[in-house]
Structure formats: C-alpha cells, structure tokens
Amino acid sequence: PGGIVVLPVGEEINTFTPVQHPADDITSDVITTHFDYHKIEQNLLKLDILGHLDPTVIRMLEDLTGLHATDIPLDDRTVMTIFQNVDALELKEPLFNDLKMGTLGIPEFGTDFAMQMLIDAKPTEFSDLIRISGLSHGTDVWLGNAKDLILSGQATISTAICCRDDIMVYLIIKGLDSEESFTIMERVRKGVVAKGKCKEWPQYVEDMKKHGVPDWYIESCKKIKYMFPKAHAAAYVMMAWRVAYCKVYYPLAYYAAYFTVRTTAFDYETMCQGKDALRARLQDIYNKIDAEKKKDKSIPWASNKEKEMFSDGRSVDEMYCRGYDFLKIDLYKSDARHFQIVDGKLLPPFNSIEGMGDTAAESLQIAAAQRPFLSKTDLRERGKVPKTVVETMER
C-alpha cells in the first residue's frame, strides 16, 4: 500500500518538489516527495493505493471453486438470510454462546458491533446492507442517531440517513433546489453543521421545513460529523456478498480461504484438536474479556493475542458446528501457508503451528518435497525448524 503522485506527461518530479529516501531507511530504493502532500496538492494528482484483503480472499475462492467472482448473483435469497439469522448454515449444533447471526468472518459484517447493527436494523434487501455499511463507517451517524430513530419507530433502515448521497437525493425529491441540496449534503457530511460552523444553516432549515422535511431528519443532520459515500459502501458490500455466497454454498472453500488470509492467531494445537478442546479455550478467553468489560480484577484480563484467538476461534467453532473437521498436519502434504481441501476436510498448513513463521514453514515444505526425513535431527537441520517447534510438532 502507498500513495502514488502522478505527474503531467513530460514533467519530472523535481519540477515540483525535491525527493528523498525514507528517513528511517536511507538504503531503500523507495523515493518520497520532500514536502507534505498538502503543499503540492493544487498541482498534482495523488492516488491512494490501498492494501485490501478482500480481493485476496476472493481470488483464493475463485481458485478453489472454479467460480468467477463477477458471476456470483447479488440477489440470492438464501445468502440474504445469513444477515438475518443462522438458518442457511445448517448447523448440526448451536454455536458457541448460542450466536444467532451467520455473518462471522464476512468482511464489514463479522464484528459484534456490526452483528448488533444487523439485529437492530433488520435488513431484508441488498440495498439495506449498503445502507448499514454507510452507517457503520460514518461518525455519529448510527449510535445516538439513526439507531435511536429506528428503534423508536420514527425511521426505518430505508428512510434513515445512512450515506452522504441520501441527503442530497432525499432533499431533491422533496423539491429543494438541486444545488442547495448538494451544498446541505456537503456541509452535513463534513461535520460543519455539527461543529456549529455553518452560518447558512438557519436558512437551510427554513427551506427544508417549507418542503415538508420532518424535524427528526433535520435533528439527525445536526449530529453527523462524517458520512460515507454510497458507491464506496456498495463496493464493500458487493465484496462481502461474494464471500457470503461461498460461505453458504462452498463452505470448505470459504473456511480454507478465511483461515489462510484473514486469521491472525490461528493455532493448530488449540483449534484443530476437536470442538471440545477449542470451546474450553474459548470459554477461558471469554471469561477474561467479560472480566475486563466489568472491570473485575479478580481474574487476569485477556491479552491482545488472546482476543485475536477468540475472534478466529469462533469461526473454527462455526465450522465444527456445520459438521466439518480438520485433518492432522502432514509432513509431506501440508502447504507452508495455505489451508487445503483434502477428502472433505481441511488440511492445515505448517505456519498454523505455534512458533512456526512463514519463512520456516516454507523451508520445511521445500525440504519435505526433496526427500523423506530420516530423523527429527534431519527434520530440524534440513527443514530449518527451531528445536522448540519440533517439540511442539512431537506433541
């Protein structure tokens, strides 16, 4: 990821700014502009090239399933249900803590905060999901604003202000001048109104009231500090929907891609020894997280790594509850970094072993492909595996 400055044809960067190597690494071949971008933004175009895990997941899903992402239908009613309940997952037993939502692991909708939004907003259409994405990325748009309006019955997910575009379109439909509607949207979505810095606001309120805009809508506008663009929300939700489609119809491919790309604390010893062992660990971490919420110092609070493990472990529990299982790691068949589908089960990679980094995992895979290991010493030396990891593998 990084920012790229685009020059007019025929110009050199030195026309506009001196350049330098990054201050923390003068040997780097990366060259950056000397000035802060805002000093030269009137003259040049900057593109933010963002890192994004969703396309990586979708590419892996395409490879595993043979699907093409753009062929996945965006109107599948069964896929829509996982944003409402867990029925489409066809669970063989209840999820850990009896979770009622099927969006664990779905980008944008997999956190507890997002799942609570789904429960409160009750989406029934793809467009509702776009609106929820807008709400979750805004500042002071959902909590203390749209959420209260929806729960009190004054608004629904369809009528609340969710994305910045909603304001302009709604005001134009109400009969306000299009330019004024655009200006009101801009003032609201940048937080100018919320900060009390919009001198024209009393005039705008008068115009809105003349055209029948309800008071709750005007009050909602006054609280907003930042709003998400609808096109951005739509792009996010399309990605999330494609992943959700695979979760429903290609579950093993979904879990293989999710565990490979998305998890940060997947631990073979904790997660691949069966549901009971996993749940005992999850319950232990849950108690620590709960103690922290209650400010209870009688038991130690969960570390960041344990919180990440809890998040990853809930998806593993879900996989078990859907009737799927892991194979044991195989010295000669496991990949260094990728989960594989073998005989209707998932084969974990070497880097899922505690203490085994990507580099060591790749060395082990290469050594295993060359010839069989003669002993643990041979494995340690040729595979470049640390002694502590060999002991873990022995367990």
Concise account of the structure shown:
The protein is mostly helical and 395 residues long.
Chart the SSEs and their pairings:
Blueprint: E1 2-6, E2 19-20, E3 32-33, E4 45-49, H1 53-65, H2 77-81, H3 112-121, H4 126-137, H5 142-151, H6 164-173, H7 178-189, H8 201-210, H9 215-223, H10 230-249, H11 251-262, H12 268-271, H13 275-293, H14 304-321, E5 340-342, E6 345-347, H15 358-370, H16 376-382, H17 387-394
Antiparallel strand pairs: 1-4, 2-3, 5-6
Helix pairs in contact: 1-10, 1-11, 4-10, 6-7, 10-11, 11-14, 13-14
Overall description:
The chain has 395 residues and is mostly helical. It is built from 17 helices and 6 strands. The protein has a two-stranded antiparallel ribbon. Strands 2-3 form a two-stranded antiparallel ribbon. It is globular, with a radius of gyration of 26 Å. The model has no long low-confidence stretch (mean pLDDT 93).
Keywords for this entry:
mainly alpha
